[in-house]
Each structure stands twice: as C-alpha cells, then as structure tokens.
What we know:
Layout: H1 3-21, H2 33-40, H3 44-56, E1 60-62, E2 68-70, H4 72-99, E3 105-112, E4 115-122, E5 137-139, H5 145-154, H6 162-167, E6 169-173, E7 180-189, E8 194-203, H7 209-219, E9 228-229
Antiparallel strand pairs: 1-2, 3-4, 3-8, 4-5, 6-7, 7-8, 7-9
Helix pairs in contact: 1-3
Amino acid sequence: MSSEQDDRKGVQAVDKALSLLTCFSEDRQKLHLKDFAAETGLYKSTILRLLDSLIRGGMVIRTADDAYMLGPQIFYLGGIYRAAFDMETTVKPLIHSLGEKLTESLIFYVRVGDERVCLYRHNSKMPLRHHIEIGTRHHLNAGGSAAHILRAWSEPDNPDGEDTRQRGYATSTGERLPGLSSISTGLFSLSGRFLGALVISGASERFDDDERKKALRTILPDIPKFGVTVPTTLVL
C-alpha cells in the first residue's frame, strides 16, 4: 500500500472516530453500541475498535451497563478551549483598548509551568520604554510584579502570596531589570477563574510609586466592560 493510501486510511479512521463523538448531545449523554450504529451507519465491529481507541485516549468511558459516555479528556480540552476563548474575546481587546490610555506599556502574562509568558501587550510609545514581544518568557524566580501576581493566585495555599492576595496588586522596582518598574494585578473571568497578570511597566525614573498607582487607577473602571474582573481586595 502506498504512503498516500496509508494517509487516506488514517484520515478516514479519524473521521469515523470523530463521528462517534458527535453522536453525543445534552439529550444523549449515554449511548450504547446500537445507538452509534444507527447514527453513523458503521459496522459494530468498526465502532468497537474506534471506541477502544477513544477509551485509551480518555475521550470516552465505558459504564458498568456497557454504555458509553464522554471521558475526562474531553472536559480537560474543553477547559483549554474555554480559557483560550476568554483570552481572545476579553483580554486581547482589553490590552489594545486600555493600552491607548496609558503612557507606559500594558502587558498580560500567563503562567506556564515555572515561567510567565507574555500573551498580549501594548508597548509604550515613549522613547525610553519597556518594550516586550508576545511569547517572551521569564522564569518566575526572576521576580517582577507579574511573577508575584501569578504565584499568589495560581498557588492559593502558598502563604508567601497572602500579602499580595490581600492587597490585590503587586509592585516592583528594579527587581528583574535595573531601571524598570511595574505594577500588576490579577484578571479573573466573571465565574472567578484566574486568567493571568495584568501589568503596567515603565522606566523607573518617571514611573514611581505614585505614578504606578495612578496608571492602574486610570484603567480600573473600564476593565469590567471587557467581561473580566480584578481582585475584590484591590484598593489603591
């Protein structure tokens, strides 16, 4: 069999497996073999082989009464999709819109393992500025106000973050880079899920403590308009 035929056969198998997953609905959360056969027109022997693969992948589980239900991997992937959707439809426009109101750079970081990753940013137009590119990574141990926020809310049982959680924001001057100051707070979905750290960052010579708090106060009233919230403890 040629490589092209192998590829086609593989794609057909994936298509058939996906057709089984689409048989589920809110009204049909538990299905039996005969249900899949009636819905897809596939042979029961083929359906069983596909279900075995889906079970191994956590996409489907088999119940005690020989029925099938969607598995935990579907829930996990749904969470990833929901988080990505939240970011694209809320945080991304927030950064671009509110960044225009500020003199300094507005950045959004998420935690990936032990690193913080820049997901969105609106760089300052000042000649001396904190310029950062999307995808930039820094280890959380490198410090910075964003690192304090990410640790405080992604490690809710860690007592080291209690002060940050009580304040609702964190500040930093020269902690990661000399001459760089920032103020950060957390962003949350309306359901209360922690999304990441919202950071305003600029040159320390003009971005002192008063200016940092003033900058954050400037954008705070508009944040809820984008379908996200900040910590309820935040008071500047």
